[in-house]
Specification:
Strand content: 5-15%
Structural class: alpha/beta
Bound molecules: ligand SAJ
Helix content: 25-40%
Shape: globular
Strand order of the largest sheet: 3-2-1-4-5-6-7-8
Number of helices: 15
Radius of gyration: 24 Å
Distance between the termini: 59 Å
Largest sheet: 8 strands, mixed
Length: about 425
């Protein structure tokens, strides 16, 4: 099989990873077709606009759509390479749901041809890339696939997990090192040839199963470390010690680096991916499973603490600062802040004021509650007796501490020190 020169690529799934990836390849003069099943997303992108809030992404998409390098559609078309960046959520009992990967593979099966490259970027349970090669083989008996014989294969297949940080996606897509796991060495090498067109970081080659576990390991590592910080904050709460001070002092040790406790773990990755390891190896992953539980329980503990204090107030008005899952982004997926605010809003005895500079209206989940309102920072500070800092947006860090001094403050992020009370 001869190496193809990449002129066109087809990116399946135009979400937080797929759209920036499509835009980066397009800005390096490849013809990029972005595919998404959502008609509104496709139409928005073809107008040079985006459905995702990510710094500079809107400008890059607009520029490449206008230049004719980036187009969106609902169905894949023939290309030199296919990049699959669709969601991989979990079902009940935390069982991984790879049906979107299967649907993407099925959609490209009729159009792939000899010499094509297929890359799965979606975070996957171990074995998904080899299984995808088998799915393709069942649908295209006229082609040879690498799980069968790498040397005879007509199609190259790899897993190269995305590792970008929301809020800094465009820079990290280019500068991060890239793990590339081929269904055989030739697949890995061919995949590196494509990424080298845009990636300045090192391309690290391995097999597909290892690459799948590497990605899961990274996010499970972070989850376990955040769970440790969250557990220490609960211990501090129990012993009436300031967790921020204790952790900051422990971090002066040359080999200790405790992360920051917070209201829990949000986002679509760290709260999900560790379960893929747990599902594949349940009997040997107790630490990973416990970390998930520690982080998942954190929002409920915080809500209970707030309710206990609020119940002592006359006509309680509670202001929640921040609904996003982390600082300085407008991403509310799996947000513990959102969960806490919803639990408070569900209590008919409370008036809940919400502040988030990344929101122009309250998320739809609040529509069933009447005593909840989206307000400005000034209005929240003026009207609420109880202030809850849930997301450490830059705007909240600037609030004058004199304005907080007459309030009851729950600071879950350690931003408004010394007004702690939070974790
Ligand atoms: N958090 C804490 N304390 C901390 C750090 C984070 O409570 O000290 C919380 C955040 O507030 C947030 C959650 O954890 O709710 C996750 O935030 P994050 O910044 O740790 O990670 P994500 O979900 O935005 O992105 C992660 C990254 N993975 C790692 O850092 C190992 C990113 O590189 C991955 O590409 C991304 O998951 C992904 O798509 O998998």
């Amino acid at each position: 099989m001869t190496t193809t020169k990449f002129k066109s690529i087809c990116v399946i799934g135009l979400g937080y990873v797929g759209l920036p990836t499509a835009a980066i390849f397009a800005s390096n003069n490849l013809k990029v077709l972005g595919v998404d099943t959502n008609e509104e997303v496709v139409s928005l992108i073809n107008k040079g606009r985006t459905h995702i809030i990510e710094p500079d992404l809107d400008k890059l998409v607009k520029k490449n759509v206008l230049a004719g390098n980036l187009k969106a559609t609902q169905r894949p078309e023939p290309a030199d390479a296919f990049i699959i960046a669709v969601p991989t959520p979990f079902l009940n009992n935390h069982k991984p749901d790879i049906s979107y990967v299967k649907a993407a593979i099925t959609s490209i099966a009729p159009i792939i041809k000899k010499g094509n490259l297929v890359i799965i970027e979606s975070t996957c349970p171990v074995g998904t890339t080899e299984t995808s090669s088998q799915w393709l083989a069942e649908l295209r008996e006229d082609l040879v696939f690498p799980h069968f014989d790498e040397n005879l294969a007509d199609i190259y297949i790899s897993h190269s997990p995305e590792r970008v940080l929301p809020g800094n996606i465009l820079a990290e897509l280019v500068s991060n090192d890239r793990v590339i796991g081929g269904v055989g060495k030739k697949c890995a090498n061919h995949t590196m040839d494509l990424y080298k067109l845009v990636v300045s970081g090192t391309c690290l080659l391995t097999n597909a199963r290892t690459a799948e576990l590497v990605k899961l390991t990274e996010n499970a590592f972070r989850d376990v470390n955040i769970a440790f910080a969250n557990e220490i904050s609960l211990v501090c709460d129990h012993l009436n010690i300031d967790p921020w001070e204790a952790i900051a002092l422990a971090n002066h040790h040359p080999r200790v680096n405790v992360l920051n406790p917070g209201p829990g773990v949000g986002g679509h990755c760290i709260a999900v991916d560790p379960w893929f390891i747990a599902h594949s190896a349940p009997s040997v992953s107790p630490l990973i499973q416990t970390a998930r539980k520690v982080n998942d329980q954190k929002p409920n503990r915080i809500t209970n603490n707030i309710i206990n204090v609020a119940k002592t107030l006359q006509d309680p008005k509670i202001a929640c600062f921040g609904l996003a899952y982390k600082a300085d982004i407008g991403d509310f997926r799996e947000s513990p802040a959102l969960k806490i605010a919803l639990q408070l809003a569900a209590n008919p005895d409370f008036n809940v004021l919400i502040v988030d500079p990344y929101l122009s209206q309250l998320p739809s989940q609040f529509s069933e509650f009447t005593c909840v309102k989206l307000v400005s920072i000034t209005e929240a500070l003026h009207n609420a007796q109880l202030l809850v800092l849930l997301t450490d947006h830059a705007e909240f860090k600037k609030i004058d501490s004199n304005l907080l001094s007459k309030k009851i403050v729950f600071d879950t992020r350690g931003v408004w020190k010394p007004y702690k009370n939070g974790p």
